[in-house]
Amino acid sequence: METRRAYVLIQRVQHDILARTNAAPGATDSELFMSPRRHLASHMSTPTNHFLRVMEQLCAGWLAGDGKQYALPFTPQAHYVVFDGSVLTGPAEIASFHQRAFDGNLRGTELHLALQEIRPVDAAAWLAFTKGGVIRKDGSVRRLTGESVQTFFCKREAGVTLIEAFQNTRIHPVTDRQSADAWRAFDKLWETDH
Question: Measured between alpha carbons, how far is 171 from 49 in angstroms, rounded to an integer?
Answer without folding.
Answer: 27
